[in-house]
Design goal:
The complex is a heterodimer of chains A (694) and B (81). Helices cover 62% and strands 7% of the residues of chain A. By secondary structure, chain A is α/β, with parallel strands linked by helices. Chain A folds into three domains: 193 residues, Rossmann fold, CATH 3.40.50; 85 residues, Helix Hairpins (Orthogonal Bundle); 366 residues, no CATH class. In chain A, the strands form two sheets. Chain A has a seven-stranded mixed beta sheet, sandwiched between helices. In chain A, β5, α4 and β6 form a beta-alpha-beta unit. The N terminus of chain A is likely disordered. In chain B, 16% of the residues lie in helices and 46% in strands. In chain B, a hairpin with a 6-residue loop joins β3 and β4. The longest helix of chain B has 9 residues. In chain B, 42% of the residues are buried. The chains are: A alpha/beta (694), B alpha+beta (81). At the A-B interface, α4, α12, α13, α18 and β10 of A face α1 and β5 of B.
Chain lengths: 694, 81
C-alpha cells in the first residue's frame, strides 16, 4: 500500500512542477495553526510526500485566485533556524537554495513575542514576506488590542490578521499573496534595503557582522541571502561555513573578528532578536483595560494536570476512547454496516446471479469476495471513531498535557512523554504511528518507539479479536478487548526494558511548548478521517480483494486444478497442512488458522476476510459457528495472543525499515516479534488449559 | 534586598526568578536559548508534573515544559525575603 502511495506522490510532484513558476513557502512555529491555514489555502489541491533524504513530511499545494495560481510549500514547524533538528535544517536549506517568490510567515497572534524570534531570522533573507497573524479573533478575549498598521509600519511588510479555524481573513490573505508576488518592484518588502537600521543586534554584534561582510566582499563571491549567511558565520554555524568553501586565510580572518567564543556570540544574537521582538510588542500591543480573565488554560490545567487528578484523568480519557470505539456505540455501528452490506448488497447480488443460473463456481467466487470485503468493511466505523477521537485529543492541546504527565514513567522505559503520541496512534494504524515518531528529537528514542509501536494493537487487528470475542465471550466484549490491548502494552514495556540499553540516549532533551487549549477544528478532524477512509478503501479494492480471490481459488481447487467441494482437498489445505505443525503447541495447528495468519502479513484485515472464506464453506454459513466448532476457548485466546504480538503488515514493516534507516534493525524487530508471539501464545494456551481444569 | 543564586530545578511551584546564565552542551544550550530562556528574562515555575518531573514554566507570555536535567543548566537569581 505504501509503495503505491509513493508512486502516486512522485507523479503528482512532476505534475505540480509544470503548474506555474511562482513559489511561496508557508513557515511558522509548531502549534500555530499552520496545517489549518494550509488546508484553507489549498483545499484538496495538495500533495503529501517526503523531503529527500530525511523523513520529514513535505506538503505542497496550489493556491488559486482569478485563474492564476501559485505553488505553496508547507515547511516544517520550527522555532528557529539553528542547525540542529532535521526540521530546522530542511527549512534553512530550502530558503537558501530555492528560488522563492514569497515567504508567508504565520504567527500566533496570542503569542507574538516568541513567534517574532523566527521572523527576525526570516527577515535576513532577500525574500518578500507577508506576516499572517493567526487566531486574531482571540485577542479580544485576552483583553488585548494589536495595532496592525503600526506593525506594518515598523517592519515595512504586510501584516494580515486572520483566523484560520473560523475561516476569517483568508480571502484578503489570498489577494495580498498574489499582489505581493506579482508586484515587480518588491524592493519595498526587502528588509535591510528600505530600512537600513532596524537594528536587531547590539553594536558589538553589528560591528562584527560589518567586518565579516568586508572579508567576504573581498572574495568577490556571489552570495545570496547575504545577511542571513553573515549572521550564521558569526554564530560559528558549521553547516553554513563549510558550504561556503572558504580558504584557510579567510577562516583565520573571520576567527580573529569573532574573538568571543561561540557561546557568548550565540547568546548575544539570540538576546538581540528577543529584545527586538519584545520592543515591537511593546509598541503594537495594548491592553483594553477590561478585566483580563485569568488564563483559562491554567484553570483547566489545575484539574487536567493537577497533582492528584492528572493520572486518573489520563486513564479515564484512554478508557473512554476505548469504550466509545469498541463499546455499545461502536458495536451498534458495526452491526448496522454489516446488516446493510449483507442484506443490501451481498445477498441481492447472489440472488440475481442464482436467478440467471450462473455457473456455481462463479457464484462461489462472488460469495467469497463479497463476504470477505464486507466482513472487513463492517469494522471501518470503529476504526474511524478511534482515529477521530485521537485527532480530537491532538487538536485540543491535550496531547501536550499527556506528554507532561507521563514523561516521568515513560523515561523509565527509555522514552520521553512525547513518544506517547506515536504509541497512542499505534492503536489506530502502525503506518502513520511510525511516521509520527518524527516528532521525537533523539534518533535512539525514535528507533525504540518504532520497535514498540507494533505492540500497540492496531485497528486492523481489532476485527480479528471481535470475531473471536463475539463467538466466545459475547458478554465481556469491552473487558476482553481491553485486556488484550493491555497485554500488548505489557509486552511493549518488557521489550523496552530488555532493549533499553541498546536504545537509551542520556543526552535526550524534552523542551516543549504547552499550547493553550482550543476547540478542535472539524475540518482537520474530517480531513484526517477521510485520509483513513481513502486508505482503507484503497486497500479493500486492491490487497484485500486480490487476496480474497487468490484464497478462494486456492481453496476451491485441488493440486490437480480440479474444482473441489470439500476444501480439505484443496491446494490451500495442502499448503496449510505443511506449515500447521508449527502451531500445534499453540493449540491452533490446523491449516485454516495457519493460512489466515500468513495472509495476515499482507494486512491484518485479511485475516478476517480469509477466515470468512475458508471457514464459511459447505454447510456452515456463519463464521461465528465455524469458529466455536473449530477452536476451544484456550486455542482462541492463544490465537488472539499470536495475532496481537506477531509482526505487523508488510506496509508497516516497509515503513519501519525506512524510518529505522536500517534493514538490519527492521529484520531484528520482525524476527523478535515472530519468536515472541510464538512463545507467548504457547504459554497462554497451556495456562488457559490448566485453568480450565479448575 | 537580598538575592539568592540557584538553578531553575530548585525553585518551588509559584516562585519567580530571573535568568542569569544558561550552561550546558552546545545543542541543548542552543535549544534553551531558542525558546527564549536568555539572561535577563523573568520566569515563573507554574507547577511540577504529578510525578515530580518535568516542570512547567512560564515566560514571555507562554508556557513551556522542561525536564529537571535541563532546568539544572539554567542559573537563576531569586529575590529573597
Amino acid at each position: 500500500m505504501e509503495s503505491t502511495k509513493k508512486n502516486k506522490t512522485v507523479k503528482n510532484f512532476k505534475l505540480s512542477e509544470k503548474l506555474g513558476n511562482l513559489r511561496a513557502v508557508l513557515i511558522g512555529n509548531p502549534n500555530v495553526g499552520k496545517t489549518t491555514l494550509f488546508n484553507r489555502l489549498t483545499g484538496s489541491a495538495q500533495y503529501v510526500g517526503n523531503w529527500p533524504g530525511v523523513t520529514v513530511e513535505r506538503k505542497e499545494g496550489i493556491v488559486r485566485h482569478n485563474h492564476e495560481k501559485i505553488k505553496i510549500v508547507d515547511l516544517p514547524g520550527v522555532y528557529s533556524l539553528s542547525p540542529f533538528s532535521p526540521e530546522e535544517i530542511i527549512t534553512r536549506e530550502y530558503l537558501i537554495n530555492r528560488n522563492i517568490n514569497l515567504i508567508i510567515n504565520i504567527i500566533d497572534a496570542t503569542n507574538i513575542e516568541r513567534n517574532l524570534y523566527l521572523t527576525t531570522q526570516l527577515l535576513e533573507f532577500n525574500i518578500p514576506i507577508i506576516i499572517v497573524l493567526n487566531m486574531s479573533d482571540l485577542l479580544e478575549k485576552q483583553g488585548k488590542i494589536v495595532d496592525f498598521c503600526e506593525f506594518e509600519r515598523i517592519l515595512k511588510i504586510p501584516v494580515i490578521p486572520i483566523s484560520a479555524g473560523k475561516n476569517i481573513g483568508i480571502d484578503t490573505l489570498v489577494e495580498k499573496i498574489f499582489y505581493v508576488v506579482k508586484k515587480k518592484d518588491f524592493e519595498n518588502f526587502k528588509f535591510n534595503q528600505t530600512i537600513p537600521k532596524l537594528s536587531i543586534y547590539d553594536n558589538l554584534v553589528e560591528n562584527k557582522i560589518k567586518k565579516i561582510e568586508n572579508v567576504i566582499d573581498d572574495l568577490n563571491k556571489n552570495i545570496q541571502n547575504k545577511n542571513f549567511i553573515l549572521v550564521k558565520i558569526l554564530e560559528g554555524d558549521q553547516i553554513v561555513i563549510s558550504s561556503l568553501k572558504l580558504n584557510y586565510e579567510t577562516i583565520k580572518k573571520i576567527d580573529e573578528i569573532r574573538v568571543l567564543n561561540t557561546i557568548e556570540i550565540e547568546e548575544k544574537i539570540a538576546t538581540g532578536r528577543y529584545n527586538f521582538a519584545s520592543e515591537i510588542c511593546k509598541r503594537i500591543i495594548s491592553d483594553t483595560g477590561k478585566i483580563k480573565k485569568a488564563k483559562i488554560s491554567r484553570k483547566i490545567d489545575r484539574i487536567i494536570t493537577g497533582k492528584y487528578t492528572a493520572i486518573p484523568i489520563f486513564l479515564l480519557i484512554i478508557l473512554t476512547i476505548f469504550y466509545v470505539s469498541f463499546g455499545p456505540l461502536g458495536s451498534l455501528l458495526e452491526e448496522s454496516v454489516r446488516f446493510i452490506i449483507e442484506n443490501g448488497i451481498s445477498n441481492p447480488i447472489i440472488k440475481i446471479l442464482e436467478q440467471f443460473s450462473v455457473n456455481k463456481i462463479i457464484i462461489g467466487l462472488f460469495g467469497a469476495v463479497l463476504g470477505g470485503i464486507g466482513e472487513v468493511i463492517s469494522f471501518l466505523p470503529q476504526m474511524l471513531l478511534l482515529f477521530g477521537l485521537i485527532s480530537v485529543l491532538e487538536d485540543s492541546g491535550y496531547m501536550a498535557r499527556a506528554a507532561f504527565v507521563v514523561d516521568n514513567p515513560m523515561r523509565k522505559i527509555g522514552l520521553s512523554g512525547r513518544a506517547f503520541v506515536p504509541l497512542l496512534m499505534g492503536f489506530g494504524c502502525s503506518v502513520p504511528a511510525i511516521l509520527s515518531t518524527r516528532i521525537l528529537e533523539s534518533k535512539k528514542e525514535k528507533n525504540l518507539a518504532i520497535f514498540l509501536i507494533p505492540f500497540m494493537s492496531c485497528g486492523a487487528k481489532m476485527p480479528v479479536y471481535l470475531i473471536f470475542i463475539n463467538a466466545f465471550f459475547p458478554d465481556h466484549k469491552v473487558l476482553a478487548i481491553f485486556l488484550l490491548y493491555m497485554l500488548g502494552a505489557v509486552f511493549a514495556i518488557l521489550t523496552s526494558l530488555l532493549f533499553k540499553n541498546v536504545f537509551s540516549d542520556p543526552s535526550a532533551t524534552m523542551i516543549m511548548e504547552l499550547p493553550d487549549y482550543k476547540i478542535p477544528s472539524l475540518q482537520n478532524i474530517f480531513l484526517n478521517m477521510w485520509e483513513r477512509i481513502k486508505d482503507f478503501l484503497e486497500r479493500a479494492g486492491t490487497v484485500i480483494f486480490g487476496s480474497t480471490v487468490v484464497i478462494w481459488f486456492l481453496q476451491s481447487f485441488s493440486l490437480s486444478l480440479k474444482f473441489v467441494q470439500d476444501s480439505s482437498q484443496s491446494i490451500l489445505a495442502s499448503l496449510g497442512n505443511f506449515l500447521a505443525p508449527i502451531f500445534n503447541f499453540c493449540g491452533f495447528g490446523n491449516w485454516r488458522a495457519c493460512i489466515a495468519l500468513i495472509t495476515g502479513m499482507i494486512s491484518k484485515e485479511t485475516i478476517v476476510s480469509t477466515m470468512s472464506v475458508v471457514y464459511r464453506s459447505g454447510e456452515i454459513l456463519m463464521l461465528k459457528e465455524a469458529l466455536t466448532s473449530e477452536f476451544s476457548v484456550a486455542s482462541a485466546i492463544a490465537f488472539m495472543t499470536f495475532v496481537l504480538l506477531y509482526p505487523p503488515c508488510t506496509a508497516a514493516i516497509a515503513i519501519s525499515k525506512k524510518e529505522f534507516g536500517s534493514g538490519v534493525l527492521a529484520f531484528l524487530s520482525v524476527s523478535y516479534q515472530m519468536i515472541l508471539a510464538w512463545i507467548v501464545s504457547i504459554v497462554v494456551f497451556r495456562i488457559t488449559l490448566v485453568l480450565g481444569h479448575f | 534586598m537580598e538575592f539568592k543564586l540557584t538553578n531553575l530545578k530548585n525553585l518551588e511551584s509559584g516562585e519567580y526568578a530571573e535568568v542569569i546564565a544558561v550552561l550546558g552542551e552546545k545543542a541543548i544550550r542552543r535549544r534553551i536559548l531558542d525558546v527564549g530562556i536568555l539572561p535577563g528574562v523573568r520566569l515563573e515555575v507554574v507547577k511540577r508534573a504529578p510525578l515530580g518531573d518535568p516542570v512547567q514554566i512560564s515566560l514571555r507570555g507562554y508556557d513551556l515544559i522542561i525536564r529537571k536535567t535541563e532546568a539544572e543548566k539554567i542559573l537563576v537569581s531569586q529575590r529573597k525575603n
